Amino acid sequence: MSSSAIYREPVEPVAIAMTIAGSDSGGGAGLQADLKTFTVLGVYGVSAVTAITAQNTCGVQGVLNLPADIVAAQIDSIMSDIGCHAAKTGMLGNTEIVEAVADRLAYHRVANLVVDPVMAAESGHELLQPVAIGVLVETILPLATVVTPNLPEAEVLLGRSIEAPTAIAEAARALTDLGPAAAIITGGHLCGDATDVLYIRDGDTLRTESVPRIDTPHTHGTGCTFSAALVAYLARGLALPDAFTEAKAFVTRAIRHGLSLGAGNGPLGHIQAGLDS
What's the predicted TM-score (pTM) here? Predict the structure, then answer.
């Protein structure tokens, strides 16, 4: 067999995306969900692990935050050799990790940064120390291309309740006052259709994506998957509004193909969602 039958030059350079997040032993959320999403969307994924969790479909049984210097070293290793076209932060755990990640992101001038402000697991287990939230707002949000909180997370970041669906657009605008260039508030915690709102500060652009709600308990990792899909499409060169539309479509397909695994809330169907794209 000739060498040409074994190796093919890539048609175009591969897009690279980095996730800075915690490990979910159950595979449904965290960096496992991120890397699955990157892969099925045709993006090469690299990772910096911030924490190790013992969790399954029923909840989180334990958390070990890694030393901040090890987290920083992982980012340095990636950026000094491989680099990335886009990146996301997920679970950061504590103040020390938040500060280390912010420092390295700024040092390496990481572009297309998506901040998923993970604060708690669906089961309610704390994944970010409350004292670290203010540090995240001060140090990481100003570096972000877009921040992607769900409704409860947006309320914490803003320090106030968002009581009416009509208030979400104003809340998204208010989030950009904290530093990010854009904000997406995901609508999984609202009643009715699943509606996500994007606001981009430059140009005062407001956009919504709404789909009928899918009646399923198997939604573990939805926020991680959405933000990872957003990163993947940004890494592939899409503009933020188009990446928003595509990420919403991908996570909707993944929810539709959710897997009934374990005794609790199962994970999304990343593979089938990718095949359906």
Answer: 0.93
